[in-house]
Every structure is written in structure tokens, then in C-alpha cells.
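ok so for the tutorial part 2 we go from a plain amino acid sequence to predicted C-alpha cells. step 1 is just haveing the sequence, like this:
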Amino acid sequence: MTALGLHSTYAANVLPPLLLAGLGTGPAIAPAISLPTYRVNEHDAGVASAAVNVMQQIGGSVGTALFNTMATTAVTTYLTDHPRHTPQVLAEAGVHDYASAYWWAAAVFALGGVATLIVYPSGQVKGTSLSTTA
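step 2 — the prediction. this is what the C-alpha cells look like for a chain of 134 residues:
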């Protein structure tokens, strides 16, 4: 999404990254929920699960606000650097702010990936399965 431009199209420039994000997010959701609650005592499972859900909600809210702030700062800086606010410059500023926020998001996700590799063990956690049976 960082390569979007003024003449980008949905099918060629937006849909492929969205599909890629969906393919990566799907397999990450189950471990993101099950691993933090692994080995939690049965009587604490509800509280542990609630804590995980709350942290995900807070992270999503704070992340959205943070990336919006970064995008706003990027567009303000762009418009300050380009004092003639023609329609073309305003359109370029709109693309620039999103690209900046996407780059920051990519850096945060990369940092999170490195932290995950360091903190969580590799392989399947004993006694768990990602598949369900009837």
C-alpha cells in the first residue's frame, strides 16, 4: 500500500495487498488468542481471555489513533513544504500521508514479528490444535 499513487486503481494496486494481508492475518488470529491463555489455570481462564481481548481492543484503538496522527503530521509537513496549495498538491499530500502511515505500520508490524520470534516458542504448543473436530 506504500506504493499507491494518484492514478492507482483498486484492482491493480489496492486489492492485491489486501488479499495478502488477509492471507497473513487469518493464520495469525488463532495463535494470537490461544497462546497468551496457554497454561492458565481453569478458574482464571475467563479473566485471562478477557485480558487478551481488552489488550487487542486497546491496541487497535491506540494504533488507529497513532497512525492517524502520523498521517496528519505527514500531510501537514507536506503542505508546509509545498506552499502553493493547488488541487494537484492537495491530492499528492493526501497520497503522501497514507504512504507515510503505511510505512510506519510496516515498521511496527516488523518489530512485532521480531518480538514474537524472540518471545514465543516455535512449533505447536503441546496439548493444543488449530483444527476442530466434531
